[in-house]
Automatic annotation (TrEMBL):
SUPFAM superfamilies: The spindle assembly checkpoint protein mad2. This is HORMA domain. Pfam families: HORMA (PF02301). The keyword DNA damage applies. One of its GO terms (cellular component) is zeta DNA polymerase complex.
């Protein structure tokens, strides 16, 4: 990619998508879903993070986040969720990245400013475990994206990567725990946890 000709939105999307790959890996490590040996320590944005050793795991996270790039750039992605669910596909916990990329911003993006703001999320994630809930046995996880609008050319290859999820939805508004937020034009990001409301039915059915 020729960065000299990259739009502010394109440059921001590139930094954000790279960050999301690292952050999602950090979340999966944090939840202890795999043995610690499945990860190796790396330094990213001058923060010690964990990288998946297993090619299938790292490949899945990379393909999902890289697949978001054209949609983040156009401001179409509203939220990226890392969802942990029980053996009946009912969500137990969600890490939610709420994203706004200002489409009218046309000044130069200070990449260092954006990276510095995103770095704080990685630091916060390293101490976020007390905010989370234990996972039941037989749990699974997935990454989902919520789009503000479907891509106009829904026949393109990038759009075809995204299919509806089988994970069930909560019936009640969730309990929300903020973790971190940032604003560095043209990007705004909020990270928060969602847990089922205490009045949520235990069995959501099919």
């Amino acid at each position: 990619m020729d960065r000299k000709n990259t739009s502010p939105q394109g440059e921001t999307a590139r930094v954000l998508v790279e960050f999301l790959e690292v952050a999602i890996t950090s979340i999966v490590f944090l939840k202890g879903f795999y043995p610690s040996e499945a990860f190796e320590r790396r330094r990213y944005m001058n923060v010690v993070v964990h990288r998946a050793r297993h090619p299938q795991l790292s490949g899945y996270i990379h393909s999902v986040t890289a697949g978001l790039l054209p949609f983040v750039q156009k401001g179409l992605v509203e939220r990226v969720n890392v969802i942990f669910y029980d053996n009946e596909h009912v969500p137990v916990e969600k890490f939610v990245f709420k994203i706004i990329v200002n489409q009218s911003y046309n000044s130069k993006v200070e990449e260092n400013d954006v990276e510095f703001a995103l770095r704080a999320f990685l630091i916060k994630l390293t101490v976020a475990e007390p905010l989370t809930k234990p996972l039941p046995s037989g749990s699974g996880w997935e990454v989902t994206a919520y789009f503000r609008a479907l891509p106009q050319d829904s026949s393109n290859k990038e759009a075809q990567m995204w299919v509806p999820t089988d994970t069930k939805q909560w019936l009640q508004p969730p309990d929300i725990t903020p973790i971190k937020s940032m604003s560095s034009e043209p990007l705004k990001v909020q990270l928060y946890l969602e847990h089922p409301n205490s009045s949520e039915p235990k069995n959501l059915g099919v």
